[in-house]
Design brief:
262 residues; 7 helices; 28% helix; DNA-binding
DNA sequence: ACATTGACCTGAGAGC
DNA sequence: TGCTCTCAGGTCAATG
Protein backbone atom coordinates (compact mmCIF):
# COMPACT_ATOMS: atom_id res chain seq x y z
CA UNK A 1 0.00 0.00 0.00
CA UNK A 2 2.26 2.76 1.13
CA UNK A 3 4.10 3.98 -1.92
CA UNK A 4 4.19 7.63 -2.93
CA UNK A 5 0.50 7.96 -3.87
CA UNK A 6 -0.70 6.25 -0.71
CA UNK A 7 1.52 8.39 1.47
CA UNK A 8 0.30 11.52 -0.29
CA UNK A 9 -3.28 10.47 0.45
CA UNK A 10 -2.28 9.96 4.10
CA UNK A 11 -0.68 13.41 4.12
CA UNK A 12 -3.86 15.04 2.91
CA UNK A 13 -5.85 13.02 5.41
CA UNK A 14 -3.64 14.28 8.22
CA UNK A 15 -4.00 17.84 6.91
CA UNK A 16 -7.76 17.63 6.96
CA UNK A 17 -7.98 16.08 10.42
CA UNK A 18 -5.21 16.47 12.96
CA UNK A 19 -3.65 19.90 12.40
CA UNK A 20 -3.81 22.76 14.93
CA UNK A 21 -4.87 20.78 17.95
CA UNK A 22 -2.92 20.52 21.16
CA UNK A 23 -1.40 17.12 21.80
CA UNK A 24 -2.38 15.81 25.21
CA UNK A 25 -0.36 12.62 25.19
CA UNK A 26 1.34 9.98 23.07
CA UNK A 27 1.02 6.26 23.57
CA UNK A 28 3.61 4.04 21.92
CA UNK A 29 2.39 0.46 21.85
CA UNK A 30 5.30 -1.05 19.93
CA UNK A 31 8.61 0.41 20.95
CA UNK A 32 10.43 -1.18 18.04
CA UNK A 33 8.91 1.27 15.59
CA UNK A 34 10.71 4.22 17.16
CA UNK A 35 13.92 5.24 15.40
CA UNK A 36 16.56 6.77 17.69
CA UNK A 37 13.80 7.61 20.10
CA UNK A 38 12.19 6.43 23.33
CA UNK A 39 8.50 6.66 24.24
CA UNK A 40 9.44 9.07 27.03
CA UNK A 41 11.31 11.35 24.69
CA UNK A 42 8.52 11.31 22.15
CA UNK A 43 6.00 12.20 24.84
CA UNK A 44 8.11 15.03 26.21
CA UNK A 45 8.78 16.46 22.77
CA UNK A 46 5.14 16.35 21.70
CA UNK A 47 3.08 17.07 24.76
CA UNK A 48 1.47 20.47 24.58
CA UNK A 49 2.49 20.98 20.97
CA UNK A 50 0.40 21.18 17.82
CA UNK A 51 0.94 19.85 14.31
CA UNK A 52 1.15 22.83 12.00
CA UNK A 53 1.80 21.53 8.50
CA UNK A 54 2.97 18.50 6.54
CA UNK A 55 5.48 17.54 3.90
CA UNK A 56 6.30 14.37 2.04
CA UNK A 57 9.35 12.98 0.33
CA UNK A 58 8.96 9.70 -1.49
CA UNK A 59 7.31 7.30 0.92
CA UNK A 60 8.07 9.41 3.98
CA UNK A 61 5.51 11.69 5.61
CA UNK A 62 6.59 14.63 7.77
CA UNK A 63 4.47 16.62 10.19
CA UNK A 64 5.82 19.91 11.50
CA UNK A 65 5.33 20.83 15.15
CA UNK A 66 4.85 24.37 16.39
CA UNK A 67 8.44 24.35 17.68
CA UNK A 68 9.63 23.57 14.13
CA UNK A 69 10.66 20.00 14.85
CA UNK A 70 9.18 17.36 12.58
CA UNK A 71 7.64 13.97 13.21
CA UNK A 72 8.63 11.45 10.55
CA UNK A 73 6.32 8.60 9.53
CA UNK A 74 7.25 5.62 7.39
CA UNK A 75 4.51 3.13 6.70
CA UNK A 76 6.37 -0.05 5.82
CA UNK A 77 4.20 -2.44 3.83
CA UNK A 78 0.96 -2.15 5.74
CA UNK A 79 0.71 1.20 7.47
CA UNK A 80 -1.93 3.93 7.50
CA UNK A 81 -3.35 6.70 9.69
CA UNK A 82 -6.77 6.86 11.31
CA UNK A 83 -8.34 9.80 13.08
CA UNK A 84 -11.13 9.02 15.48
CA UNK A 85 -13.09 10.42 18.38
CA UNK A 86 -13.20 9.57 22.08
CA UNK A 87 -15.43 6.59 22.66
CA UNK A 88 -14.50 4.93 19.42
CA UNK A 89 -12.17 1.98 19.50
CA UNK A 90 -8.60 2.44 18.28
CA UNK A 91 -8.05 0.35 15.14
CA UNK A 92 -6.42 -3.05 15.47
CA UNK A 93 -2.62 -2.93 15.18
CA UNK A 94 -2.43 0.63 16.40
CA UNK A 95 1.29 0.99 17.17
CA UNK A 96 1.28 4.61 18.26
CA UNK A 97 -1.56 6.85 19.34
CA UNK A 98 -1.53 10.64 19.46
CA UNK A 99 -4.32 12.04 21.64
CA UNK A 100 -5.47 15.64 21.38
CA UNK A 101 -7.14 17.89 23.88
CA UNK A 102 -10.24 18.12 21.69
CA UNK A 103 -11.02 14.46 22.41
CA UNK A 104 -9.78 13.09 19.10
CA UNK A 105 -6.95 10.67 18.43
CA UNK A 106 -4.63 9.97 15.55
CA UNK A 107 -3.64 6.31 15.27
CA UNK A 108 -0.53 5.13 13.45
CA UNK A 109 -1.53 1.65 12.37
CA UNK A 110 0.75 -1.13 11.15
CA UNK A 111 -0.24 -4.72 10.80
CA UNK A 112 3.34 -5.83 10.31
CA UNK A 113 5.74 -3.77 12.40
CA UNK A 114 7.83 -2.65 9.48
CA UNK A 115 7.12 1.07 9.67
CA UNK A 116 8.72 3.66 11.89
CA UNK A 117 8.39 6.99 13.62
CA UNK A 118 11.26 9.42 14.14
CA UNK A 119 11.86 13.03 15.07
CA UNK A 120 14.02 15.37 13.06
CA UNK A 121 14.78 19.10 13.21
CA UNK A 122 14.78 19.32 9.45
CA UNK A 123 13.21 17.49 6.50
CA UNK A 124 16.15 18.08 4.18
CA UNK A 125 18.65 16.64 6.62
CA UNK A 126 16.48 13.59 7.25
CA UNK A 127 16.11 12.98 3.53
CA UNK A 128 19.84 13.30 3.14
CA UNK A 129 20.55 10.98 6.05
CA UNK A 130 18.32 8.35 4.43
CA UNK A 131 20.10 8.86 1.13
CA UNK A 132 16.85 9.41 -0.73
CA UNK A 133 16.86 10.58 -4.32
CA UNK A 134 14.56 13.32 -5.59
CA UNK A 135 10.85 12.88 -4.99
CA UNK A 136 9.29 11.44 -8.13
CA UNK A 137 6.48 14.01 -8.20
CA UNK A 138 8.52 17.05 -7.29
CA UNK A 139 7.82 19.76 -9.89
CA UNK A 140 11.52 20.42 -10.06
CA UNK A 141 12.21 16.81 -10.94
CA UNK A 142 12.24 16.99 -14.73
CA UNK A 143 13.19 14.81 -17.66
CA UNK A 144 16.86 15.63 -17.46
CA UNK A 145 16.94 14.85 -13.75
CA UNK A 146 15.16 11.60 -14.48
CA UNK A 147 17.74 10.60 -17.05
CA UNK A 148 20.48 11.55 -14.62
CA UNK A 149 18.91 9.44 -11.88
CA UNK A 150 18.90 6.36 -14.09
CA UNK A 151 22.48 6.75 -15.20
CA UNK A 152 25.31 4.46 -14.33
CA UNK A 153 23.45 1.26 -13.56
CA UNK A 154 23.35 -2.08 -15.33
CA UNK A 155 20.32 -3.25 -13.41
CA UNK A 156 16.82 -3.80 -14.74
CA UNK A 157 14.60 -0.77 -15.16
CA UNK A 158 12.22 -2.26 -12.61
CA UNK A 159 14.97 -2.37 -10.03
CA UNK A 160 16.21 1.13 -10.87
CA UNK A 161 12.72 2.64 -10.57
CA UNK A 162 12.30 1.10 -7.14
CA UNK A 163 15.72 2.25 -5.93
CA UNK A 164 14.92 4.99 -3.41
CA UNK A 165 18.40 6.42 -3.71
CA UNK A 166 17.79 7.14 -7.38
CA UNK A 167 14.19 8.29 -7.24
CA UNK A 168 12.10 8.36 -4.07
CA UNK A 169 8.54 7.09 -3.95
CA UNK A 170 8.11 4.22 -6.40
CA UNK A 171 7.66 0.68 -5.08
CA UNK A 172 6.67 -2.69 -6.42
CA UNK A 173 3.05 -1.94 -7.32
CA UNK A 174 3.52 1.41 -9.02
CA UNK A 175 6.65 0.36 -10.87
CA UNK A 176 4.50 -2.31 -12.53
CA UNK A 177 1.89 0.27 -13.51
CA UNK A 178 4.48 2.76 -14.78
CA UNK A 179 6.19 0.11 -16.90
CA UNK A 180 2.88 -1.01 -18.29
CA UNK A 181 1.88 2.52 -19.27
CA UNK A 182 5.30 3.04 -20.85
CA UNK A 183 5.02 -0.35 -22.60
CA UNK A 184 8.39 -1.47 -21.31
CA UNK A 185 9.35 -4.88 -20.05
CA UNK A 186 10.43 -4.83 -16.43
CA UNK A 187 13.53 -6.81 -17.34
CA UNK A 188 14.86 -4.20 -19.77
CA UNK A 189 18.25 -2.89 -18.69
CA UNK A 190 17.95 0.74 -17.63
CA UNK A 191 21.08 1.49 -19.64
CA UNK A 192 19.49 0.17 -22.86
CA UNK A 193 16.72 2.75 -22.93
CA UNK A 194 16.86 5.29 -25.71
CA UNK A 195 15.59 8.81 -25.55
CA UNK A 196 12.09 7.98 -26.72
CA UNK A 197 11.71 5.26 -24.12
CA UNK A 198 13.11 7.46 -21.38
CA UNK A 199 10.67 10.21 -22.28
CA UNK A 200 7.75 7.79 -22.34
CA UNK A 201 8.86 6.38 -19.02
CA UNK A 202 9.22 9.80 -17.47
CA UNK A 203 5.74 10.76 -18.66
CA UNK A 204 4.41 7.51 -17.22
CA UNK A 205 6.01 8.17 -13.84
CA UNK A 206 4.35 11.56 -13.53
CA UNK A 207 1.05 10.50 -15.02
CA UNK A 208 0.64 7.28 -13.07
CA UNK A 209 1.57 8.74 -9.69
CA UNK A 210 -0.65 11.78 -10.02
CA UNK A 211 -3.54 9.78 -11.40
CA UNK A 212 -3.19 7.35 -8.51
CA UNK A 213 -3.39 10.23 -6.05
CA UNK A 214 -6.48 11.56 -7.81
CA UNK A 215 -7.92 8.05 -7.40
CA UNK A 216 -7.18 8.08 -3.67
CA UNK A 217 -4.64 5.33 -4.38
CA UNK A 218 -7.61 3.01 -4.80
CA UNK A 219 -7.25 0.64 -7.79
CA UNK A 220 -11.03 0.47 -8.05
CA UNK A 221 -11.13 4.15 -8.98
CA UNK A 222 -8.31 4.10 -11.49
CA UNK A 223 -8.78 4.50 -15.25
CA UNK A 224 -9.90 1.52 -17.29
CA UNK A 225 -6.61 1.25 -19.12
CA UNK A 226 -4.67 0.79 -15.88
CA UNK A 227 -3.00 -2.46 -14.97
CA UNK A 228 -3.47 -2.29 -11.22
CA UNK A 229 -7.07 -3.54 -11.03
CA UNK A 230 -5.94 -6.58 -13.03
CA UNK A 231 -2.77 -7.17 -11.09
CA UNK A 232 -3.57 -10.66 -9.86
CA UNK A 233 -3.09 -14.19 -11.01
CA UNK A 234 -5.20 -14.92 -14.07
CA UNK A 235 -5.68 -11.17 -14.48
CA UNK A 236 -5.90 -9.98 -18.07
CA UNK A 237 -4.41 -7.02 -19.85
CA UNK A 238 -7.06 -4.29 -19.97
CA UNK A 239 -6.04 -3.48 -23.57
CA UNK A 240 -5.62 -6.84 -25.31
CA UNK A 241 -7.01 -9.34 -22.78
CA UNK A 242 -3.82 -11.37 -22.87
CA UNK A 243 -3.26 -13.10 -19.58
CA UNK A 244 -0.84 -11.17 -17.40
CA UNK A 245 2.47 -12.79 -16.60
CA UNK A 246 3.89 -12.71 -13.14
CA UNK A 247 7.41 -13.50 -12.11
CA UNK A 248 10.00 -12.43 -9.60
CA UNK A 249 12.10 -9.56 -10.88
CA UNK A 250 14.45 -7.59 -8.66
CA UNK A 251 13.28 -9.79 -5.81
CA UNK A 252 9.63 -8.80 -6.08
CA UNK A 253 6.62 -10.34 -7.76
CA UNK A 254 6.03 -8.36 -10.92
CA UNK A 255 3.06 -8.39 -13.28
CA UNK A 256 3.23 -7.39 -16.91
CA UNK A 257 1.49 -7.94 -20.22
CA UNK A 258 3.69 -10.15 -22.43
CA UNK A 259 2.09 -8.66 -25.55
CA UNK A 260 2.48 -4.97 -24.70
CA UNK A 261 5.74 -5.12 -22.78
CA UNK A 262 8.53 -6.81 -24.67
C1' DA B 1 27.86 -3.75 -9.26
C1' DC B 2 24.40 -6.63 -9.48
C1' DA B 3 20.94 -10.20 -8.11
C1' DT B 4 19.32 -13.12 -4.61
C1' DT B 5 18.06 -14.54 -0.13
C1' DG B 6 16.74 -14.10 4.49
C1' DA B 7 15.42 -11.25 8.35
C1' DC B 8 12.35 -8.22 10.37
C1' DC B 9 6.85 -8.91 11.67
C1' DT B 10 1.89 -10.44 11.39
C1' DG B 11 -2.14 -12.05 9.35
C1' DA B 12 -5.07 -13.42 5.26
C1' DG B 13 -6.21 -16.87 2.32
C1' DA B 14 -5.58 -21.35 0.13
C1' DG B 15 -5.35 -26.14 0.46
C1' DC B 16 -5.90 -30.24 3.03
C1' DT C 1 -12.97 -26.45 12.30
C1' DG C 2 -8.31 -26.31 12.46
C1' DC C 3 -3.87 -27.00 10.82
C1' DT C 4 -0.01 -25.81 7.66
C1' DC C 5 1.83 -23.39 3.97
C1' DT C 6 2.58 -19.38 1.09
C1' DC C 7 2.41 -14.81 0.27
C1' DA C 8 2.14 -9.67 1.04
C1' DG C 9 2.50 -2.51 -1.46
C1' DG C 10 9.44 -1.96 2.39
C1' DT C 11 14.12 -1.91 3.76
C1' DC C 12 18.45 -3.74 5.30
C1' DA C 13 22.37 -6.94 5.68
C1' DA C 14 24.78 -10.87 4.12
C1' DT C 15 26.09 -13.77 0.37
C1' DG C 16 27.36 -15.27 -4.42
Amino acid sequence: MPELPDVEVFRRYLNSTALHQTIRETDVRAQGILEDLTPTKLQSQLKGRQLESTDRHGKYLFARLDNDDWIVFHFGMTGFLRYFQNGQQAPGHTRALFSFENGYHLAFVLQRKLGKIALTPNVRSYVKKQGLGPDALDRDFGLEDFKEALKGTRSSIKSALMDQERIAGIGNIYSDEILFQARLSPRTRASQLGNRSLEALFQAVKEVLSTAIDSQADPGRMPGHYLLPHREKEGRCPICQTEMKSEKIAGRTSYYCPHHQK
